[in-house]
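Our consortium's second objective concerns turning raw sequence data into structural hypotheses that experimental partners can test. To show how far this objective has progressed, the report includes one record in full. It was chosen at random from the queue rather than selected for favorable results. The single chain below, 302 residues long, was entered without modification.
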Amino acid sequence: MTPETRHVSIRDVTFSYGAVRALAGVTLGISAGEVVALLGPNGAGKSTLTHVMLGLLTPGIGRADLFGMRPQDAVARGLVGAMLQDTGLMRHVTVREVVGLVAAQYGRAALTGGILREAGLADLGARRVSRLSGGQRQRVKFALAIAGDPRLLFLDEPTAALDVAARHAFWEDILERAGRGRTIVFATHYMEEAEAYANRIVVLQGGQIVADGPARQIMSRVSDVTLRFTDPEAREEELARLPGVLRVKGDPGDRWELVTSDQDATLDALYGASRRGVRDLEIIRGSLEDVLMALAKETGLP
């Protein structure tokens, strides 16, 4: 794969804070147009890995490249944008002034109005940063990250403090960028966002990558899935014999709950030719915490 198509290349990266090892031999490649979610518990190494990829930290062992060059060089060329949790903002200037200042560094000052619209800030350009809400400040950080129209965008908990409408608009913009060949890497604690918007999930634990793949593949590491449905014809003993079923619970109103270790086999049998009364099916998969606990059990990592 050429540097033109591989936007991120991390090879055997190790990084320590004194005696604390934050990354332990991480290898990761990310290609053009991918939307990649970084998941993991606090202290797993997500922020350290992001900072290594941005050139803010230099690995003790291994190598990090963006577009086939050092991260610092890629950032200097305007190929990379970042929205980090610890980004500070000038307080006593207007939104338009601060976004325009950053846009000017990329020769895009004349496009400030368009950048404000993309970030949902068109009506807030004249407001001072000190008077913004938490969600509005988050949108300003996003505007600064996209001010140079980067080919690679790093986002750390990007939808924190955003309301539902703002989250929807944000992810619409992100997916449109990915459709234009931009690469998106975002760290989040929201498994539902990772499932809905990432085409690839990378899970870190103990400074190592313990899972890497599509959301469905990652979630399959948690074997137990709960199925809830209504079926007035069902009988408990019959449901208990379905393949994969571990537990059966019946509720008033012919509502049933099955816990299964093999979702596909159970559903195939549940919707078999002899069963026609199943309706209002809900599939409840494990939470992010369940995934992390299962992976920790598999790997022995904290």
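The partners drew two points from this record. The first strand starts at residue 6 and ends at 17. The longest helix spans residues 164-179. Both points have been shared with the crystallography group to help prioritize constructs.
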